[in-house]
Amino acid sequence: MQTGAVLTVSESKRLIAKGVAAHPAVQRALKSGLVAIAKGTTNSYVVEEILGKPIEKTNYCTGTTWPTKGSRAGKVSGAIPDVVLRNGQPVEGATATGSVADMKAGDVFIKGANAVNHALKQAGLLIGHPTGGTLGATLGTLVARRIHLIIPVGLEKSVPGDIVELSRVLGRNDERVGTEPTLWPMFGDLVTEIEAIKLLTGADAVCVAAGGIGGAEGSVRLTITGDKGQIDAVVRLLDSVYGEPAFIR
Question: What pTM was computed for the model?
Answer without folding.
Answer: 0.94
